[in-house]
Amino acid sequence: MKTNITEKGRIKMEHIPKNHPRADSLRTRQRIIDGLHENIVIEAGLIAHGRGEAFDYLIGERTNDNAMHAIEVAVAALFSAKHAVISVNGNVAALCAEEIVRLSKITGALLEINLFYGKPGRIEAISKTLRDAGADNILGIIPFESSVIHNLSSNRRFVDPKGIKIADTVLVPLEDGDRTEALKEEGKRVITIDLNPLSRTAQQADITIVDNIIRVIPRMCEIAKDYKQQLDKNKLFRKELQEKVIKWDNAVNLSNAMMIISTYLESKVSFNKN
Ligand code: PTJ
Questions:
Q1: Given 39, 67, 206, 212, which residue has the most CB atoms within 10 angstroms?
Q2: What is the tens place of the pLDDT at every residue in 203-225?
């Protein structure tokens, strides 16, 4: 058999057949695997990605109107914040470094690396990826033992005193569920992106975007660009954005997300219900 594995035991992106029915999904998966070899992603990140893929099937692998509404409110929240921060972990850096840097530049939200698994060299590898993607200011690079989020025992508690520590709004995509409650206890507004509407983070965040980060961040950038243009023309537009956030009901959003999964599954069931 002809091998498509390199000497280092890795498959190359170009070895994914272009006409494979799931080529996009395989390429995305490959970015996570490459991220693992580059010390950006941790082994648990592969498991997290698989979990995400499974939930993506359940929403039909597309951005629905409910998620779109959450995306708009999330961008409105970033613009309404006094000090917004986007938290970057290994999976986020591997999947959408360029887009997350673009979102940070349009909205003015700062980028902070915050990892659950503190393996040596990861922060450096992730910051290189972000710099290569155009980031010029990255927080969370030096470990701040003295700046912590209280009531949190994982590695995520160490935060940058210029970033998450003083933020009023934090975007925490693909989160493992131990931090949102603690961030909220410190009075912060939490936005998350999580394909699993039942996850602890999804349930506890103020704004949960139930969709794939691969689709979400480019859409957030488009909307942010539009809001920014409107804000430049009319300062009163900020009030409209604030209203959007105040009116938001995350419990309704999560119920809608679960209904969408349920309806999608029902549409696939072909047995006679009578
Ligand atoms: O890089 P680190 O050390 O900070 O660790 C990052 C991971 C992702 C390994 C860590 O946060 C973790 O273990 O996360 P969990 O507990 O697996 O949770 C990740 C959540 O993200 C799950 O609810 C997944 O369904 C969801 N998810 C995975 N991939 C995607 C996703 N949601 C949106 N888009 C995705 N592509």
A1: 67
A2: 999 999 999 999 999 999 999 99
Give pLDDT tens digits for 9-36: 667 777 777 777 777 888 999 999 999 9
Domain count, the chain: 2
Q: What's the domain range around 50?
A: 13-58
The model carries a pTM of 0.95
Half-sphere exposure of 103 (CA within 13 A, CB side): 28
Give dist(CA 19, CA 29) in Å, integer: 16
Which one of 33, 87, 122, 174 would you pick to mutate in the ligand 1 pocket, going by the greatest count of ligand atoms within 8 A of its CB? 174
Nearest to 133 by CA among 46, 10, 210, 31: 31
Question: Tell me, what CATH number does 157's domain have?
Answer: 3.40.50.12640
> If you write DSSP's letter for every residue of 224-266 in order, what string do you get?
HHHHHHHHHH-TTHHHHHHHHHHH--HHHHHHHHHHHHHHHHH
In-domain check, residue 268: no
Judgement on whether residues 23 and 115 belong to the same structural domain of the protein: no
Strand partners, 190: 170
